[in-house]
Amino acid sequence: MMSPQHLTGLKEIASSFDGFLFDLWGVTHNGKIPFPGALDCFNALKDLGKTVVLLSNAPRRPSIAKDRLTEMGIDSGLYADLYTSGYDCYLHLRDRPDSFYKELGNHFFHMGPERDHTTFQGLDIIKVSSIAEADFVLTTGTDSWASQLSDYEPLLQEARAKSIPLICANPDRIVMFGDELALCAGAIGERYEQLGGFVRYHGKPDPKVYQCAFDLLNTYAEKPVAKERVLMIGDSLATDITGANRFGIPSLMVMSGIHGSFLLPHKDNLEDLQRNLSQLTEKYKAIPTYIMEEMRWI
To answer: What Rg do the C-alpha atoms of the chain give, in angstroms?
Structure first.
């Protein structure tokens, strides 16, 4: 594998791309406030006439995600549109496009916070209060930011005993919430697989959601954008960078996200940084085209 190019700011390579796919958590914001450097990048790219689409594993539909971004101070005029894993899940539950969904059944048990109920509102499915009543489990996340994986073990064991599938609307295992790492729905899905259960994931790193975001980007671009002229910017090797590799587009990994504690202590020693980065890229079998300490324009 070739070593990624180390950037100081996005400006160094912006002219090489016409379209940009931005991750949210860990790149654009930390779950509480936007990163000033990300806002600088959005404004600079807008001034350059570049097309920006947000691609997130947020387990909610786009309108809800946009409202939350606006509340944080990220104006909708800074990006063209966004595509979320929650919306991808919603579309599959609505349209039943394959044999898995056609045979799924309509009664589901929800693992996740109440704020995620909008993900499945308006669908022809029925939320039940116990695993015993369910045809499948839908997980959108944990009940609180302090939740532990062990909190869900009894429910997962019960679902496995019944041999029902689990649908995961957010493949992220962990996410940055403020300055801390918090558990996500992907960890619940991973545990269910360890128990021998079947899991259907929606979101990154599935190349299909990159195709959806790419198509969305091209609906807003003034002229057709080729894949090699689109850059994915994320903080997770497991999702953002793996997905970009599989879809065949260049990628930039922001090191201050979920891998920050492993990488940033070595930012002033390039040999040590390269060693730790190599360990991560080998672990996840994914490599970014570029790396940058944090989201910044210059």
So the answer is: 19
> In the chain, which ranges are continuous DSSP H helix?
36-47, 62-72, 85-95, 99-102, 153-162, 185-194, 207-220, 242-247, 260-263, 270-284
Q: Is 127 exposed, middle or buried (0-12, 13-18, 19+ CB in 10 A)?
A: middle
Q: Which residues pair with 109 in a beta bridge?
A: 128, 137
Kindly report whether the peptide bond that precedes residue 36 is cis, defined as omega within 30 degrees of 0. Answer: no
Percent share of the chain, pLDDT over 90: 89
- Please give the Cα distance from 253 to 4 (Å, whole number): 9
- Which of 218, 170, 297, 210 has its CA nearest to residue 52? 218
In this predicted model, what pLDDT tens digit does every residue of 91-147 receive, in sequence order?
999 999 999 999 999 999 999 999 899 899 999 999 999 999 999 999 999 988 888
Cβ partners under 8 Å of residue 171, min gap 6: 57, 85, 185, 186, 189, 201, 202, 203, 204, 205, 206, 239
Query: Three-state secondary structure along 40-56?
Result: HHHHHHHHCCCEEEEEE
End-to-end CA distance of the chain: 27
Residue 178: Cβ within 10 Å count: 11
| CA 140 – CA 104 distance, rounded (Å) | 18
Residues recorded for the chain: 298
Average pLDDT, the chain: 95
